[in-house]
Known about the structure:
Elements: E1 2-6, H1 15-29, E2 34-38, H2 45-51, E3 59-61, H3 62-66, E4 91-96, E5 99-104, E6 107-114, E7 122-128, E8 134-141, E9 145-152, E10 158-164, E11 170-179, E12 182-193, E13 196-200, H4 203-215, E14 221-224, H5 230-234, E15 241-245, H6 268-273, E16 280-283, H7 286-295, E17 301-303, E18 321-328, H8 337-350, E19 355-359, H9 365-377, E20 384-386, H10 392-399, E21 402-407, H11 416-423, E22 428-431, H12 436-440, E23 447-450, H13 455-467, H14 470-485, H15 489-503
Parallel strand pairs: 1-2, 1-14, 2-3, 14-15, 15-16, 16-17, 18-19, 18-21, 19-20, 21-22, 22-23
Antiparallel strand pairs: 4-5, 5-6, 6-7, 7-8, 8-9, 9-10, 10-11, 11-12, 12-13
Amino acid sequence: MNYFVNENIFSLNSGTEFSAISRVKLFKQNGVAAKMLTRNYNPELVDDTERVGLAANDVLNMYSFFQEITSIEKKDVDVRYTDAIDKNMYQIEGIDPNKSLIHYHGRTVGQVDIAPGTVGLVGAIEYFNDFNDLVAKDIWDRRGFKSSTQYYHPDGKEGAQVFFNAKGEPKIEITRMNIDGQLHNTMYKLVHYKGHAWRFNTENEMFAFFMNEITSQEPSVLINDRPSLINEVASVKNAKGKWQFLHNAHTVNTAQLGGSNKVYDYMKPLFKDHIRDFDGVIVPTEQQRKEITKFFGFDHVLVLGDTYTVKHDLATEPKRDLNKIVFLGRISPEKQPNQALEVFAKAKEKLPDLHLEFYGYASDNALKQSLSDLAKKLNVENAVTYNGYQDAAKLTEQLKDAGALLTVSMSEGFGANIVEAMSYGIPVFGYDVKYGLSSLIQNGANGYLEPLNASQVLADDLVKVLSGDAKEWTQLSQKASATAEGFNAPAAWKLWQKEQSKTTNLFVK
């Protein structure tokens, strides 16, 4: 089995999760078994998995494995009909779409939290004492059963937590203690696994044990997507192959010609401690491969795309809103969304009808507020829209008529957002930074690249293309689409096969 190691499938996923998700689909299309392997407890996992277009058995989660619930079918349990609340003794009062109160002889003794994204389905049941303090919460798996009970200390802080199988038998326990005023998880316990109790100091220790267990069952390859799990994957003894996929730039000196041996702190476990514990690393571009090979002694450094593209019917120039500029992806400091506003404001001085659309979730509210303040300062607040995280269907509707993509990151390992925009025929305007942009964007052919932070020059490029002869925009659009086509599923799989022939253990068939 081929496992792509991640923390979770989230309600709001980043490019890292989407890379692994597309990889599972690619392998399945080509008849090779693959799953995402996830660590985090997630009672909504079955819904989150469906939302990204995967089947339930495309994901193997550690908690589900030890809870013995990997094959449980999804079942809707409505708060009005659940057997967990005796309707002869308790009265249920609906308060709003998100919660209902439980009353006993006129006193509120509990609350039902409705499962996210559902109408009236049980997500959790909270229990109160005589002083209306929360003492326990039963957390329901979206597949229709009580999955965990979280207990609370008198001060309201989380205490012990127990996880059950579908029959209600305890399978995992977490112990929490207050140490120097801070609440810490001090023990993870498998209650009765293979006839024994197993204890771990951390969740990651249990995850490493889990990976050793599943890789001992059949020949398996681990491809890790998350730098936070490097130590744990490195410790696995039973895998046929272990690889680290780098989705971002590894070095702090991305502007330095010829590369650098200085890596980000979160990458040091890989580059300093575990080079010999991995069969190699996977990167999206040849430039990054050459730099890593130059400075570090990995056995293999392979080049494989971060995603693959799907062909779209292109809207032609008359059906496009050439005044619509999009910023696509997570809104975080390294993506320099402030620079996007500055470039946009400069271009808008000459093209007053321009508007900028952000698509993606903000890393924190403070950043979003700072962007709002900057937009006001630049006098463009009425022309900027923050659309938040969008599902695939909604994003398609928004991208198919856009005129340009603006990307101003400090660095890009690849730029899945860039190649996705190109698949809709959107020309890309950005900064010439390592690593992905220079391999995707041909200056003047499918977009424009300018030196890092050259905001005025990039704004001039936008003005030139969006205000000029529609023929140039059409040529850029067509070339962008053709570039994206080079990263389609057949091309992506051909690369995997090519690299497999060099290593033999990149994946198992």
